[in-house]
Amino acid sequence: MTDVHKSQVQAQFGASAEAYVESQGHAAGDDLEWLLSRGRQRGAARVLDIATGGGHTARGFADFTPTVVATDLTEPMLRAARKFILGEGKAAVRFLAADADALPFKDASFGVVTCRIAAHHFPELLPAVRQVSRVLRPGGSFLVEDILGHEEPDLARFILEVEKRRDPSHVRSFRQIEWTAFLRAVGLTVIDETILPKVRVWDDWTGRMRMTPEARRDLDRFVLDAPAPCREAFDFKLDGDRIRSFTDRMLLLRADKD
């Protein structure tokens, strides 16, 4: 990551660490269960969770994995995840501050690598997936989930503006064809994939980012003033001029190392 963007991510998420530990949308859901079920099928002895955030993916894998290593760029987030996971009695999880595009591990160190709802913060996707491929053992699996980029340019621009107003460290969400191409370029082949809807409760979603009242009002106004097809595409639920929720789509992939 660039130093400027790295500092932006750390500042944005360092102040929100506890909110991500407590977030029900991250703590559970069909998306997390999809990743865990594929992880159980693989049965790896060592799992790496990149950009662990609140630690929910690492905590889930610790139920059936002898060794889990959880990394994150933001040290307050890592400390919050450590407190949460150790409080759950999962002593086999190790924690390490690390960039996704500069992982401090030897080649072929892990049977499974996971990354859940984080890649949209990466300035570039290719360096990160190249690192994933490097640390995976031959035949190992990358289990990844992220916001699915929209194919329609106007809708993609609208939701990108929503995301960046809420979280300036958001870079972009990648389309399915882009994910497949980047993974293929580093020797990873998509074996399994699905798309799942994820409802975002507006007050919770914006509140986790500790937006100022002015920024929140501006974001609300931007959504309310947007063309109706933009709101409809993401199923924005309104109560008068109050936004209740919207729904985006999550892309989940299992890609194996050739």
Give the structure's gist in a few sentences.
By secondary structure, this protein is an alpha/beta fold. The chain has one domain (3-150, 169-199, 248-257): Vaccinia Virus protein VP39 (Rossmann fold), CATH 3.40.50.
Describe this structure in words.
The protein has 258 residues and is of the alpha/beta class. It has one domain (3-150, 169-199, 248-257): Vaccinia Virus protein VP39 (Rossmann fold). The chain contains twelve helices and eight strands. The protein has helices at residues 3-14, 17-22, 24-27, 30-42, 56-61, 75-87, 125-135, 153-166, 176-185, 202-207, 213-225, 228-233; strands at residues 46-50, 67-72, 93-97, 110-116, 136-147, 188-201, 237-239, 242-257. Strands 1, 2, 3, 4, 5, 6, 7 and 8 form an eight-stranded mixed beta sheet that branches. Helix 7 (125-135) packs across helix 9 (176-185). The model has no long low-confidence stretch (mean pLDDT 92).
Q: What topology does this entry show?
A:
Blueprint: H1 3-14, H2 17-22, H3 24-27, H4 30-42, E1 46-50, H5 56-61, E2 67-72, H6 75-87, E3 93-97, E4 110-116, H7 125-135, E5 136-147, H8 153-166, H9 176-185, E6 188-201, H10 202-207, H11 213-225, H12 228-233, E7 237-239, E8 242-257
Parallel strand pairs: 1-2, 1-4, 2-3, 4-5
Antiparallel strand pairs: 5-8, 6-8, 7-8
Helix pairs in contact: 7-9
DSSP strand (E) fraction? Answer: 25-35%
Number of discrete domains = 1
Number of helices: 12
Q: If you compute it from the alpha carbons, what radius of gyration comes out, rounded to the nearest whole angstrom? A: 18 Å
Quickly give the structural class. alpha/beta
Report the CATH C-level class.
Answer: Alpha Beta
Low-confidence stretches: none
Beta strands, count: 8
What is the CATH architecture term?
3-Layer(aba) Sandwich
Main pleated-sheet profile: 8 strands, mixed
The helical percent reads: 40-55%
What is the CATH superfamily?
Answer: Vaccinia Virus protein VP39
Oligomeric state of the chains present here: single chain
CATH topology: Rossmann fold
CA-based shape: globular
